Fold:
Amino acid sequence: MKKKILLLPFLTMLLFLSCTNDDSSDEYAEYLVARPMVMSKTEFAAGVDIIAPRPINESGKVYAYKDYIFINDKYKGVHVINNSNPSQPVKVAFIQIPGNVDVSVKDNYLFADSLTDLVVIDISDIKNIEQVNRLENVLQSNIFFPFEADIVEGAIYDHETEIVVGWQTITERRLVSEVEKDNGGVFNDTAFAESTNGETGQGGSLARFKIVEDYLYAVDSHNINVFNISDLDNPQALEDVYAGFDIETIFYNGNYLFLGSMRGMYIYDIANPAAPSKVSEFEHGTACDPVVVDGDYAYVTLRGGNWCGATESGLFIVDISNIESPELVVSYPMDGPYGLGIKEEKLFVCDGDSGLKVFDKTDVNDIKELNHFKDIVTFDVIPTENHLIMVGDEILYQYEYLNDGIRLISQIGLN
Structure:
């Protein structure tokens, strides 16, 4: 008899979203529900393919390289957009990569995660994209828990022939009493245990991949996975560097890697690029956390609620002039921030459902709001040299820089 595995909720506490009901606000609430996505192992192994543009299911990370923008469709692959004219971007292809959440590019080679595998794809001819290599089981802790969800539901699947490649999230209206009655249980992670030199692109603040010269650094929930990519179509997996728990993002500045985690910001020296060494950390409690760096300051957004832990959200500005002893300078309240970015003295914050906020950060102790685009849902930004790229709610937005803020120049729906 084939063994079946049951996934159950992870924690015993559920954090509620806004409560609304036609009859009584005490009876119903809206919850963000996550369910595991299961596919056959045979389909997964042969899953990389290049197909025509298709509607996006759930937009994730965004990456810019030359005249192209790559937008992750969570756990499904990457949408390729020709952005040679930012005023009129055009969808040109979809790279199907099961279990994918991140990409990074160097000299026309795209590196992408496919669950625990690292895939190398030649994009020198965008009309003839080709997989050239696949390193299996080199990202061992690369299955990420859906921290944005209120409820994580289970599924029964055959671990011998099937595999969990990610999570599908949807907002559902549930009876509060039933949710409270059913909470609890144990999450069975053994189900998953079986399962710059050159021209590089630019990712957003939520990136887990970062290329620095001849090395690719890919963070999973516990480690910095290090790859020597001097031979681009034949990367070599080096020894992983253990970095702690709940690692979420990676940012590079100077000679350092800045890791954002749910527990704090960790700083690693890459003077020896094959073996990053920890320099210091800044603890901020428990919250979902990306980080970007400019000069003597690190800018960290903390998002509370859901599985992220903290109840308050905000922008934290940390003095890193003494890299061995980072210190909090000031914090500003936010509603539910995700990614952020910096272009000279402009600071861009994707404040989730509260829209895109643009600040003048000349004085970090008194940042001033320049723009607030309120009626959009925002996820992450890339401040390129010439314009700002932002993705959110299955829409790609682009803005031009102005002296006193930014101005929308285009938007394209990804559905």
